[in-house]
From TrEMBL, chain A:
Record protein name field: Hydroxymyristoyl-ACP dehydratase
Keyword DNA damage assigned: no
Keywords attached to this entry: Lyase
Pfam families: FabA (PF07977)
Sequence intervals crossing the membrane: none
PANTHER family named in the record: 3-HYDROXYACYL-[ACYL-CARRIER-PROTEIN] DEHYDRATASE
Gene3D superfamilies cross-referenced by the UniProt entry: Hotdog Thioesterase
Highest taxon of the lineage: Bacteria
Origin organism lineage: Bacteria, Pseudomonadati, Bacteroidota, Flavobacteriia, Flavobacteriales
Keyword RNA-binding attributed: no
Automatic annotation (TrEMBL), chain B:
Protein name: Acyl carrier protein
Domain Carrier: 4-81
Coiled-coil intervals: none
Record organism: Zobellia barbeyronii
Length: 150, 84
C-alpha cells in the first residue's frame, strides 16, 4: 500500500485530521509530518491572547501519524480496505511535553512499534519541531477493528 | 506447577488491570474479565501478554476469543503448557 493510500484510509477529516504527509512507514514504525494551521479554532481559546497548540492536539497528531497510519499499514495484509472500513479507539496514552508548539509550526512525528498483538498497537512516539527540537514524547496504544462497508 | 500456583499467578497478573472500583476479592474462577471484572479489551490484551511472559507460552487469536473467564484462561494456560 502506498503512503498516500494510507492517508486516504484515515477515518478523519478537517478539522480533525492531523497528518499532511507520511514520509516513511514499515513493519516497525512510521514517520510523518503536519503543519498546525494558525487559523485553527482552538488557538482562540488556548490561551487567551497567547496561542499555543494544546497538548491533547499534539497527542492526537502523534496518534494519527504514529499509531493509526502504522496500524493501517500493518493491517493491509489482513484487511481488504476496498471492502472494509477501519474502526479505531485510543486506549491509553502517557505523554511528556517538553516545549510549546506555536501556530503555523511544522512538526515531524516518529513512532516505533512496541507490539501489535490481538488488534492492539502500542507505540513509542516522538514529535520534533522544524528546528529538530524534541517537543513531546510518550507511549500511545490503540485498538483496531475492521467492519464491512455498509 | 499445580493448579493453585497457576491460579495465584494469574490473579497477580489480573489484579494490576482491575479498575479502582473492583477489588481483588472479586476475582473468582467464574469471573468474566469484561462483564464482571470490568477489564476493557485493551487491558485484556495486556493480561494475555503478561500471561505469555509469566508462563512462557504463546497465545493465538482463537485463544483470545475463547478467553472469557478466569477459568477459560487457566484452561488455555494448561493446554499450552501441556503442548510444550
Amino acid at each position: 500500500m502506498e503512503k498516500i493510500d494510507i492517508i486516504d484510509q484515515l477515518p478523519y477529516t478537517e478539522p480533525f485530521l492531523f497528518v499532511d504527509e507520511l514520509m516513511e512507514v514499515g513493519e516497525n514504525g512510521a514517520v510523518g509530518a503536519y503543519t498546525f494551521s494558525g487559523d485553527s479554532d482552538f488557538y482562540k481559546g488556548h490561551f487567551k491572547n497567547h496561542p499555543v497548540t494544546p497538548g491533547v492536539i499534539l497527542t492526537e497528531c502523534c496518534a494519527q501519524i504514529g499509531v493509526v497510519c502504522l496500524g493501517i499499514y500493518l493491517l493491509q495484509n489482513e484487511v481488504d480496505f476496498t471492502q472494509k472500513t477501519i474502526q479505531i479507539g485510543m486506549s491509553s496514552t502517557q505523554m511528556e511535553f517538553l516545549f510549546p508548539v506555536l501556530p503555523n509550526e511544522k512538526v515531524t512525528v516518529t513512532s516505533e512499534k512496541v507490539y501489535f498483538r490481538f488488534n492492539k498497537l502500542k507505540c513509542k512516539v516522538k514529535m520534533h519541531n522544524s528546528k529538530g527540537l524534541l517537543v513531546c514524547k510518550g507511549e500511545i496504544s490503540g485498538m483496531f477493528k475492521s467492519n464491512a462497508n455498509a | 506447577m499445580n493448579h493453585e500456583i497457576k491460579y495465584n499467578k494469574l490473579k497477580d497478573i489480573v489484579k494490576v488491570y482491575l479498575p479502582e472500583d473492583v477489588s481483588v476479592d472479586a476475582i473468582t474462577l467464574e469471573s468474566n474479565f469484561i462483564s464482571e471484572l470490568n477489564i476493557n479489551s485493551a487491558n485484556l490484551v495486556d493480561i494475555v501478554l503478561d500471561v505469555e511472559d509469566e508462563f512462557d507460552i504463546m497465545l493465538e487469536n482463537a485463544d483470545m476469543d475463547k478467553m472469557q473467564t478466569v477459568q477459560d484462561a487457566l484452561g488455555i494456560i494448561d493446554a499450552k503448557l501441556e503442548a510444550k
